[in-house]
Amino acid sequence: MVLHDNSLNTFVPSALFDADNLGSYLQYNVKIFPTDYFDYDEISSHQLQNIYIPYVQFNNFFIDQFGGFTFKNVNTAFLEYIYKPISLQEFLLFTVVFQNIILK
Fold first, then answer.
1. Choosing a second label site near 56 at 20 to 30 A (CA), which of 36, 38, 45, 63?
2. What does each C-alpha distance from 75 to 26, 33, 51 come to in angstroms?
């Protein structure tokens, strides 16, 4: 998986999202050009869409070198990571370790 790390993105609530007008969401945040390619990642746990401009040159290079692959904006991966559900066992372990650090 390739993560595109740039500031050429914005989050849009799913209720207001229209896949046919991706550029219109970014036009007030970043400078866009007619040749820009837009993509989006769905963050279903929060009913958000992350609309961004990926680095097409990098994608083309990876396609040429490795064939098919997936890509996301780094902010999507970050939100998925910090909001991923944890098990009860992980929560209890964190609580015990945290309390031991505080009590010492």
1. 45
2. 15, 22, 10
Amino acid, single-letter form, for residue 23:
G
pLDDT > 70? residue 101:
no
Residue ranges of domains in the chain:
2-103
Helix (H, G, I), strand (E, B) or coil at 38: coil
Residues 43 and 50 sit within 8 Å (Cβ to Cβ): yes
Section 45-58 average pLDDT: 91
Residue listed under structure tokens 């998986």: 1
Asked whether residue 16 carries a pLDDT value surpassing 70, the answer given is yes
Question: 51-68 burial by CB neighbour count: b if 16+ within 10 A, else e?
Answer: bbbbeeeebeeeeeeeee
| pLDDT value of position 21 | 92
Cα–Cα separations (whole angstroms), residue 22 to 16, 54, 59, 87, 95: 11, 13, 19, 36, 42
**Is 3.40.50.720 the CATH classification of the domain at 2-103?**
no
